[in-house]
Amino acid sequence: MAEQQPWSEEEFIEQLRHKGRGYHFHHPFEVMLREGKLDPDQLRGWVANRFYYQKCIPIKDANVMANTPDREVRREWIIRILEQDGHEDYDGGNEAWIRMGEACGLTRQELLDEVHVLPGVRFAVDAYVNFARRQPWQEAVCSSLTELFAPDAHQARIDAFPKHYKWIGEGALDYFESRLTQARRDVDHGLRVTVEYFRTRGQQERALNILQFKLDVLWAMLDAMYLHYVLKECQPRV
């Protein structure tokens, strides 16, 4: 049987965007966060576990750079590492996330030492980093396209924190505010690479599966948090 005709660029991008139905924005734990239903310990747990994901993002991006022979891609992709790790004129996203943790009552050392990271969160995040390390760099780029759906989530958190979590100190929103513009710029590059590389129908369907894998990573992280902090049915490893 002959392979189906590839989607046009516009149809392919629409198929990618359609995956947003499964974005972790819709997870019950994330809904609780936006609706102000997390207690302080649950919110701090979310911040601490999400920081493990944040701190691994530049490692993932370094693997993308290491795997591509294309200098122009590396020159554009390195911006992502600087966005997270910072540079002489900018503290970076990870530092902003630490400020959020401190505003919520966590210490810098707690975050850096990963003392609150749940096994399920660690497993999911490490699977993502290993995917970027082992797969073709174009596939790792495609996996980053969950950024298509991120701005709405960031804006929802910006709206929710001052309304529902008035006990949180200053600096909690710095990360989300910076990502409103950074995520849109980053996704433009990721889409260009993905559209150019995944050309046949089979490749395009592979891209959808890759994006689904990343959506599953983010969803699994919140599953672990919901199980531990809401249902209280598991304990972190000792």
Automatic annotation (TrEMBL):
Enzymatic reactions: 6-(2-amino-2-carboxyethyl)-7,8-dioxo-1,2,3,4,7,8-hexahydroquinoline-2,4-dicarboxylate + 3 O2 = pyrroloquinoline quinone + 2 H2O2 + 2 H2O + H(+)
SUPFAM superfamilies noted in UniProt: Heme oxygenase-like
Pathway(s) the chain acts in: Cofactor biosynthesis; pyrroloquinoline quinone biosynthesis
Enzyme kind, highest EC tier: oxidoreductase
UniProt keyword annotation of Lipoprotein present: no
Enzyme Commission numbers on file: 1.3.3.11
Residue stretches making up the Thiaminase-2/PQQC domain: 15-223
Keywords: Oxidoreductase, PQQ biosynthesis
Keyword Transmembrane helix: no
Gene Ontology terms for molecular function: pyrroloquinoline-quinone synthase activity
Domain of life: Bacteria
Gene Ontology biological process terms from the UniProt entry: pyrroloquinoline quinone biosynthetic process
Pfam family, one: TENA_THI-4
InterPro entries registered for this protein in UniProt: Haem_Oase-like_multi-hlx, PqqC, PqqC-like, Thiaminase-2/PQQC
Similarity annotation: Belongs to the PqqC family.
Cited HAMAP family: PQQ_syn_PqqC
Function: Ring cyclization and eight-electron oxidation of 3a-(2-amino-2-carboxyethyl)-4,5-dioxo-4,5,6,7,8,9-hexahydroquinoline-7,9-dicarboxylic-acid to PQQ.
Protein name: Pyrroloquinoline-quinone synthase
Organism: Candidatus Entotheonella gemina
Top-level taxonomy: Bacteria, Pseudomonadati, Nitrospinota/Tectimicrobiota group, Candidatus Tectimicrobiota, Candidatus Entotheonellia
